[in-house]
């Protein structure tokens, strides 16, 4: 019991390290995977690692992206989920790197993001384990989260997607409320 309490206190008291910022102005956390941005390949690689594909859209100077990287993603329980259970691919809202969508369309990041009608950063899109060849990422996503959220919402969303909550009759908002009421956030 004392060992468990000591470990729990150490995890809460442990200093959190924020992600570095790359030349493109985006945060570079250790759990973000640098890929060729072919979502079909990324989905296959995620599956091979037993992880879920998450696409995160960010932009230089985004104060909400900074909030997520410095206050939420760095919390040990959330960072562990991102590291252990997710294959995270980062896209730059105004970037020029080519992205290949699930339907085979290839466009620069900024044009792909416009095609998807994404307007906010950060935006997290969570993909199912398999995606048909004739759909876009937006059509395939099992959940899309535009904007910055606190630790409880982020933790619960990561768990809800990981555990296929979208396949149940309980929408995320009800799951989230139930988890908050149960005090399910480990601290």
Compact overview of the structure:
Helix content is 40%, strand content 17%.
Structural notes for this entry:
With 187 residues, the chain is an alpha+beta fold. It has a single domain, classed as Glutaredoxin, CATH 3.40.30. It has eight helices and eight strands, in the order H-E-E-H-E-H-H-E-E-E-H-E-H-E-H-H. The chain has a four-stranded mixed sheet. A hairpin with a 5-residue loop joins strand 5 (98-100) and strand 6 (106-108). Helix 4 (76-85) runs parallel beside helix 7 and helix 7 packs across helix 8 (172-181). The longest helix has 12 residues, at 2-13. The chain is globular and about 45 Å long. Residues 1-16 have low confidence and may be disordered. This is Thioredoxin-like domain-containing protein. Keywords: Signal.
């Amino acid at each position: 019991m004392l060992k468990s309490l000591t470990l729990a206190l150490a995890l809460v008291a442990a200093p959190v390290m924020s992600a570095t910022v790359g030349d493109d102005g985006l945060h570079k956390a250790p759990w973000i995977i640098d890929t060729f941005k072919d979502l079909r390949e990324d989905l296959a690689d995620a599956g091979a690692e037993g992880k879920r594909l998450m696409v995160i859209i960010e932009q230089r100077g985004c104060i909400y992206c900074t909030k997520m990287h410095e206050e939420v993603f760095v919390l040990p329980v959330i960072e562990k989920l991102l590291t252990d259970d997710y294959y995270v691919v980062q896209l730059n809202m105004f970037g020029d790197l080519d992205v290949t969508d699930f339907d085979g369309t290839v466009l620069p990041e900024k044009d792909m993001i416009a095609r998807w009608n994404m307007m906010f950063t950060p935006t997290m899109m969570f993909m199912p384990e398999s995606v048909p060849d004739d759909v876009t990422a937006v059509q395939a996503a099992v959940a899309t989260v535009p904007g910055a959220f606190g630790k409880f919402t982020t933790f619960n969303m990561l768990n809800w997607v990981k555990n296929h909550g979208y396949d149940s009759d309980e929408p995320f908002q009800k799951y989230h409320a139930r988890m908050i009421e149960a005090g399910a956030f480990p601290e």
